Amino acid sequence: MAASLLLAPLAMSTPPPSNHTRPLSTTSSFLNCGSTKLCGLLTLETGLGSGYYSHPLPGVHGLWPEVAPYGTSACVPPARAADPSTVYPCYKDASQPDSHQLDFETHEWQKHGACAGVADAADFFTQVCRLAAPPLLTMDASRAAGKTASADFAADLTSAGFPVFSHDDTYGQVMLSACADAAGQWHVAPPSSFASTCGSSLTAPPAAPSCPANAHGPPCASDADCHYPGCLRCAHSGFCTATPLAAKR
Q1: 3 state SS of 198
Q2: 173-180 and 240-241: which strand pairing?
């Protein structure tokens, strides 16, 4: 049973965008970035909340820069503000249509990604999925072991070395602290390590990736990773490309 849970696709609960509010019952509520300019919370769901927060497996809610009144983070807008156009792997949910998930991603992007200092929506959600994958494996194991309280999930994550900042009993969520470096890359880290992990400088967000003619584009594993200007597909080289596949004879 545990193995099947650990290998299953990441589940994602999706509260309706219009109803999304910051939980009031968290164990901690203000995040001080110190000398680091961008910091926030990677919010993960146990799947044991009610309504849209109830689902078979733990999943990611989002990455929230803690701007005022939630923390001291700066708000750095993206290089490209266009809304997401695809459902990213960690937001896939077999119980919900892709249109619903895309609406939720758009909400997360407009509310939180707009201050995350990233290049664009693809950069933001790719980072969210990358950051969420390791702690969600720990939460899968907690769920398989019969844990139900968010405090128990938080304790297991802490034991596994993840920087738990708070947990939310109302919706069954656990928040990990994170910071962004000058290149717009986010890292899960405790507040005491923000400066050493992410530094204290703040630059403009990186230029959005693209696929120039006759040159490699961004790295990719599949065509789904190539949602950038000018990119058509993921080539065998492992990079997005603007060159279409040659027609077969």
Answers
A1: helix
A2: unpaired
Both tokens of 229, joined, read 């200007």
What 3 state SS string does 22-91 have? CCCCECCCCECCCCCCEEEEEEEECCECCHHHECCCCEEEEEEECCCCCECCCCECCCCCCCCCCCCHHH
Compute the distance between CA of residue 238 and CA of residue 249 in angstroms, rounded to an integer.
Answer: 25
pLDDT digits (tens, 9 = 90+) for 147-188: 999 999 999 999 999 999 999 989 999 999 999 999 999 999
pTM over 0.85: no
End-to-end CA distance of the chain: 48
CA distance 108 to 80: 15
Rounded-to-integer distance, Cα 118 and Cα 127, Å: 9
Contact 182, 74 (CB under 8 A): no
Choose among 96, 104, 92: nearest CA to 18.
104
